[in-house]
Write a structure and sequence with these properties.
The chain has nine helices and six strands, in the order αααααβαβαβββαβα. It is elongated and about 75 Å long. Helix 1 packs across helix 2 and helix 5 packs across helix 9. Strands 1-2 form a two-stranded antiparallel ribbon. Among the domains are: about 80 residues, Rossmann fold (3-Layer(aba) Sandwich); about 80 residues, no CATH class. About 10% of the residues have low confidence. It is mainly alpha-helical and about 250 residues long. Strand 4 and strand 5 form a beta hairpin. Helices cover about 50% and strands about 10% of the residues.
Length: about 250
């Protein structure tokens, strides 16, 4: 949802739906967020006149600092990451370093973009998956064999027979009937055979960083990408599962 047109008053009203009190803090973060939106949308020569400001909220535990930040990030469609920074000041602390925080923040951003793109194409993917399932449910078109192939009982050199107008109408009517049954759930128990990709798996190696001594599993197949062909296998699944699998592939 795009909330970039909200005024500070409207931002505060949205925060009021989830957070009680803290009126001054809400007003301050609303103005700061509005200034960032303004800076992003004005001409470049005017952007320097609007200085974005970072926000520091100070207060005891439980007053709503984290919730205000989380709700604000949701309004702005920005990634939200909570880190216990006070541990970095402890003597002898060994653990997550700043680079690991940046990496987590980038991963959150990537996952948000992926989820947004998947949502945008979800309807189209479901439509394509439905057509593919109907192709599996409806028998294929008749084919014509050459005389030599018929004598040799061979499946090679097959020629598709042209369909007449009546056959096309009948085929379309059958497809629409199957589509209605599919929407009504009458085909939920029907089994279809489809080719699915096996989940990627590969040897894992552990790397220990000198700064944080964090173990990071690196999947070698992800590193090689498309250099390693993905295995596929045929499975018999029910129609609803087949639609989900095909939609995910799209």
């Amino acid at each position: 949802m795009n909330n970039s047109g909200l005024t500070p008053r409207e931002i505060v009203e949205k925060l009021d739906r989830h957070i009680i009190g803290q009126a001054d803090a809400k007003r301050a973060v609303a103005i700061a967020l509005r200034n960032r939106w303004r800076r992003q949308n004005v001409p470049e020569e005017l952007a320097d006149e609007i200085s974005p400001k970072n926000i520091i909220m100070i207060g005891p535990t439980g007053v709503g600092k984290t919730e205000i930040a989380r709700r604000l990030a949701k309004l702005d469609n920005s990634p939200f990451l909570k880190v216990e920074a006070s541990k970095f000041t402890e003597v002898g602390y060994v653990g997550r370093d700043v680079e690991s925080m940046i990496r987590d923040l980038v991963e959150l951003s990537i996952n948000m973009l992926k989820a947004e793109e998947q949502e945008n194409v979800q309807a189209k993917a479901a439509e394509i998956a439905e057509e593919r399932v109907l192709d599996l449910l409806i028998p294929p078109r008749p084919v014509e064999k050459k005389v030599g192939d018929m004598l040799n009982d061979s499946d090679q050199e097959q020629i598709d027979l042209p369909l007449t107008d009546d056959q096309i109408k009948k085929q379309d009517a059958t497809r629409e009937k199957m589509r209605k049954w599919l929407h009504d759930g009458k085909l939920d128990e029907r089994m279809v055979e489809l080719e699915v990709s096996e989940p990627k798996s590969g040897p894992m190696i552990e790397i220990f960083s000198a700064a944080g001594m964090e173990d990071m599993g690196l999947n070698l197949k992800d590193m090689l990408g498309n250099m390693m062909p993905q295995k596929k296998k045929r499975r018999n699944v029910k129609v609803p599962e087949a639609i989900e699998v095909m939609a995910a592939e799209e």
